[in-house]
Each structure stands twice: as C-alpha cells, then as structure tokens.
Amino acid sequence: MRPHMSKGPPRADLEARTKASRAYADRARRSLPGGVTAGVKYFDPYPIAMKKAKGCRLWDLDGNEYIDYCLSFGPLVLGHGHPRVMKAIRDSLQSAGTTMFGTPHELEATYAERLLRIFRPDGRMRFTMSGTEATLHAVRIARAYRKRPMIAKFEGHFHGGVDEFLVSHTPSRDETRKGLVPISGSRGTPEHVLKNTLVLPFNDLDETAARIRSHADRLACVILEPIERSYIAPDPEFLKGLREITADHDIPLIFDEVMSGFRVAFGGAQHAYRVTPDLTCLGKIIGGGLPCGAFLGRPDILDLADPVRGDFFQSSTFAGYPIAMAAGMATLDELEKPGAFDGLLETTRTLTSGFERHLKEHGVPAVVPGVGSVFSILFMNHAPRNYRDSLEADEAKRSVLDTSLLARGIFVKPGKPFYVSAAHDNIAIRETLDAFEESLSGPA
Ligand SMILES: Cc1ncc(COP(=O)(O)O)c(C=O)c1O
Fold this sequence. Notes:
Strand order of the largest sheet: 4-10-9-8-7-5-6
Shape: globular
Bound molecules: pyridoxal-5'-phosphate
CATH class of the largest domain: Alpha Beta
CATH topology of the largest domain: Aspartate Aminotransferase, domain 2
CATH superfamily of the largest domain: Type I PLP-dependent aspartate aminotransferase-like (Major domain)
Low-confidence stretches: none
Number of strands: 14
Helix content: 25-40%
Strand content: 5-15%
Number of helices: 16
Order of helices and strands: HHEEEHHEHEHHEHEHEHEEHHHEEHHEEH
Structural class: alpha/beta
C-alpha cells in the first residue's frame, strides 16, 4: 500500500517518515564516506536505507513500503527474491557443499555455452565478477590484440569506475563547450590516460567516422554502450556505420551490454539492431542478482587469454563461482519462457505511455525516452539523441519529481533511469501511475 501523503511539501513529508534512514546515514557516514558503499547509492540529504524486499517492493528501516524502479541499478529483472532464483541458489549450495571450488566446475562451461549460443556461437568467453571487470578486460585484450594503448569511447558513456572509462563520462555543460576533448571524471586520473583516450559523439556518424579515421593507426578499440545510458536509442545506421568503419581498420568494436544485454532484447542491442561487435561485455542480469560479469567475442582475440599461449593475463579469484552461474541460468530460464520478455516490454510501455499521458494532461514539458525495459524522465522539449542533448534537461525539476515520488512510495534513484521487472504487476503499475499523477498536481 502506498503511503498517505500529508498536505505539506514532499521533501518534509519524506524526511518525517524516514527518520531511521537519517539516523542510519549519520552513523554510516562515520565509517563509510558519504554513508554509502558506492557513490551511485548516495542522494541528498541522505539515501533511504532498506531492510527487506520482495518482488517489485522494498521496505525501508522505518517500515515504509516502496515500489522499486531501481532494482539494484538493473540486475533484478525478475524482481527481488524470485522463487526459482532463490531455489537455484539453495540447490547449488546444497549439491556443491561450498560457495566456490577455486577449480573448474561443470556449471561454468554449461553457462558459457549458453551465453555464447545467444551472443556469439563461434566465440569464446571469460567470466568476471562485475561489469567493470568485464569492460576492463575487454579493453585490455583488445590492446593485447592490436598492441596499442589508445582507446576510443563515447561522451557520456559509462563502463565502470576505471580511469579510462571515467574520461568524459559526465562532463558538465561548461566542459562540453571545450569540444570533444578528454575530460577527467575523477581526481587522480593519470595524464597518459587522457592522452590515450579519444572521445566520440554518439549518434553522430560523420564526426565519429572522421575521428576514428584520423586516429586509425593508433586505436586499440572502440567501446560504447550501444544504447546510451540504457535509454537513448542508437540510429540503426549509426551502429552499422560504426561497425563498418571499425572493421575497415581492424579496430575491435566492443559493445558494453552490461546493462542492455537482457533489457532491450533477449540477446541485447546486437540482436535488436543486427550488428555484431568483435567483443561483448555482460554483467548485471547474467548473475541473477549475484555479482557476475563476462566478456566474450571473436575466438582469435579471446584465445589470447589461453594460459598455454601466455599472451594475455586475466585472472579473478571468485569468477565463475557456482551460485552465480546457477542464479544467472535460472533467471534466463524464466526470461526465456514464452511471453515473459514480451510481457516485460508491455509492462514498460504501459508505464511510459501512462507517464506521457499525465505529462501532457498537466502541460508539463518533459519526455520519457526509453528502450526495452529501461526509461527515464527528462524535463526538456525533445527526446535526446545523445549525452550533450540530455544536458538540456532541467535537473532541478527532475529532483522535485523524484522526491515527490519517493514520498509517495515509488522508489527511483533520484536522477537515474527507471528499471522495470517481470514482478511489476498491474497493481504496482496502477499505484505508480496514480503516484505520478499526484506528483504532477501536488505541492512541490
Ligand atoms: C553499461 C555499464 N557498463 C559497466 C557497468 C559497471 O558494472 P558493475 O557496476 O557491475 O561493475 C555499468 C554499471 O552500471 C553499466 O551500466
């Protein structure tokens, strides 16, 4: 049940009902910078701390209930604690008698074969423990293949908290006025990283092609989120053109499908847009709610990691641990059931079209861009085509909306996209649309 709002401002209301989260934040700040274990989990004035979850719902330390549109930043595509996934974890623990072997085991190859059938039947892959580790090693192996240090990445694209991926991942409006120059996204970025990163504009094929061509003899790879920020669609011609130009110069093209892998289509953006990259990075959903990532692709590149050859070093103590393989496969089993993926897309469409209807009725200039089961709300007049466009959006208005939704029991990480799960049922969708409508008409 959604909370009953007082007639006061949503922020005061939210703070009044989340006193235990505030107390927790005060305590946690003393040991964890900002009171969080990852910067992305923080929001102002303090993040709401949860203690229980089920399906599409979360309960915070004060006992408030929320409908979850963060889903741990995407992985929980079946919702929290899906019975089949929980059983797979329990069964794996029971039959293995341990959380990990530290040796090869059968589930690793079984899951690898399955993911390769979906993404690259002639390919090879390695598991990692996270999306970041997957992108990191994909870039490293591309460098090993081309024996060059420089990489190209797109402005506004995120591939994990690593020096080269933080280059130009969130430049400010002022910084973008300098042109497409590498901007450090964090203190401590070494100068050589900035020098060896070429920044490209998403959905601008002419400029992208010109930049790649002029650096073609230096580039080890081009990496991108084929769906920018998981909700801005690529022009199909853009991805195809990018594929052609990188192939012409034998520059490995890396699709970071950590987010899009099982959200835009079963098999990611490469299936939806029929473009085959040289390397693909996966994460999030493939672990079924447990830490897991993977990089896969062309056998001639991946085989550099064969220890017998000794060309390329990659290792990870925990990678491929049995419960993540079991939870990931159980998740894909559910998603593959007839109608399951289509149902998820349909639920998302019901939500986005409902949001759009309410925005129109209230004369609010905002757009709801989305792809697959992820979307966002941007207070601007037209759908953005890339990161630069999205900087036109009014963040302050979005922040007011997010606070208002939180106060009404809709959990969205402020400023971030909305992720939908198969556990979002009709009741949850109706409650969400009601809360959204009230937020547009209620006190700011
Ligand atoms: C597209 C993309 N790549 C890589 C990552 C990093 O994944 P992880 O947080 O599992 O390291 C993320 C995380 O949000 C992501 O969205």
